[in-house]
Design brief:
The protein is an alpha+beta fold and about 100 residues long. The chain is built from three helices and six strands, in the order ββββββααα. The chain has a three-stranded antiparallel β-sheet with strand order 1-2-3, with no helix packed on it. Strands 5-4-6 form a three-stranded antiparallel β-sheet. The longest helix has 11 residues. The chain is globular. It holds the Pfam family YlxR. This is YlxR family protein. InterPro entries: YlxR (IPR037465), YlxR-like_sf (IPR035931), YlxR_dom (IPR007393).
Length: about 100
């Protein structure tokens, strides 16, 4: 049995994260990290931006589910509305496969 909080990934342990949209726990590399920069939610492709992060599957379905559940102010620990227009456009571009 792998250590709790990690999955075996080609012989190496990989950290787990939970998608804030669908609440499925999966390997960190399959999720997109989001952070708040000046009141706007932006994707953190490289995982290097400062601040609290929230993870979501890179699909519009999980993003819309998270938005409906109003998880972003809680996840980022900020008050007030957050702009998601750039994030939505970015994910729309990723969904076209």
């Amino acid at each position: 049995m792998p250590p709790q909080g990690k999955l075996e990934n080609g012989g190496r342990a990989a950290p787990l994260r939970t998608c804030v949209g669908c609440r499925v726990r999966t390997v960190k590399s399959e999720l997109l990290r989001l952070v708040v920069v000046e009141g706007e939610i932006v994707p953190d492709q490289r995982g290097r931006l400062q601040g609290r992060g929230a993870y979501v599957h890179p699909t519009l379905g999980c993003l819309e589910l998270a938005e409906r559940r109003r998880v972003f102010p809680r996840s980022f620990r900020v008050a007030g509305p957050l702009d998601m227009a750039g994030l939505r456009a970015s994910l729309a571009g990723l969904d076209v496969e």
